[in-house]
């Protein structure tokens, strides 16, 4: 996850994904019956971004990395009680509404930054004065 945020990709991700969705979307995507609420989309997408960064940093061979990613993705979907097809339909729907997708990815970035803060070591400062 650190490499994802440090590479400076985080600020570009929403724009790139909106542009990609805009290129592929039909005029109007109907609202799927199983549409994931934005909050759940944020959680699932943040999990996937974090998983991708962890697998990328594992330095596994490509085939092993892909197998690990798919296994962990399946586990994550099970834990979040979401299916791949539900995520795809929801993503397609939100992608046809650029503002919604931009908001979702801004929240994903904020979520990843908050998760990163949990794991970053505390800043080291001068030692506190000791009282005897």
From TrEMBL:
Transmembrane segments: none
Domain DUF4296: 32-117
Keyword Hydrolase: no
Top-level taxonomic group: Bacteria
Keywords, in A-Z order: Signal
A Pfam family that the UniProt record links to this protein: DUF4296
Signal peptide start and end residues: 1-21
Keyword Transcription regulation attributed: no
Positions in coiled-coil regions: none
Matches recorded under PROSITE patterns: PROKAR_LIPOPROTEIN
Name assigned to this protein: DUF4296 domain-containing protein
């Amino acid at each position: 996850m650190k490499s994802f945020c440090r590479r400076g990709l985080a600020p570009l991700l929403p724009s790139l994904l909106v542009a990609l969705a805009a290129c592929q979307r039909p005029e109007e995507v109907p609202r799927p019956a199983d549409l994931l609420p934005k909050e759940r989309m944020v959680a699932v997408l943040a999990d996937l971004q974090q998983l991708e960064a962890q697998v990328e940093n594992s330095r596994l061979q490509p085939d092993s990395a892909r197998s690990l990613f798919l296994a962990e993705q399946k586990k994550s979907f099970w834990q979040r009680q979401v299916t791949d097809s539900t995520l795809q339909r929801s993503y397609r729907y939100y992608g046809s509404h650029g503002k919604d997708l931009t908001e979702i990815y801004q929240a994903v970035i904020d979520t990843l930054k908050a998760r990163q803060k949990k794991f970053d070591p505390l800043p080291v400062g001068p030692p506190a004065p000791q009282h005897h």
